[in-house]
């Protein structure tokens, strides 16, 4: 399922096997999807610009650690 959230698109993937247990579950949060773009943005920038550039993607670090 794809869900639009304030920080971007979240993806929830669940695969069942017919029992009460799941075969696979995956959650991709918007912050995790935005990290590669943020890394490219930070290349070659000034150290003083790093906090502002990180805040442009409005990161939720606790969502990324799942």
Question: Can you tag this structure with a few keywords?
Answer:
3 helices; 35% helix; elongated; 66 residues; alpha+beta; 3-stranded antiparallel sheet; single chain; 3 strands
Written description of the protein model:
By secondary structure, the chain is an alpha+beta fold. Helix content is 35%, strand content 30%. It has 3 helices and 3 strands; from the N terminus they run E-E-E-H-H-H. The chain has a 3-stranded antiparallel beta sheet. It is elongated, with a radius of gyration of 16 Å.
What is the number of helical segments per DSSP (H or I, 4+ residues)? 3
Spatial gap, N to C terminus: 18 Å
Assess the beta-strand content as a share of residues.
Answer: 25-35%
Number of β-strand runs:
3
SSE string, helix = H, strand = E?
EEEHHH
The chain-level structural class is alpha+beta
Molecular shape: elongated
Radius of gyration: 16 Å
Helix fraction by DSSP (H/I, runs of at least 4): 25-40%
What do the pLDDT scores average to?
87
Could you write a compact summary of the structure shown?
Helices cover 35% and strands 30% of the residues. With 66 residues, it is an alpha+beta fold. The protein starts with a strand and ends with a helix.
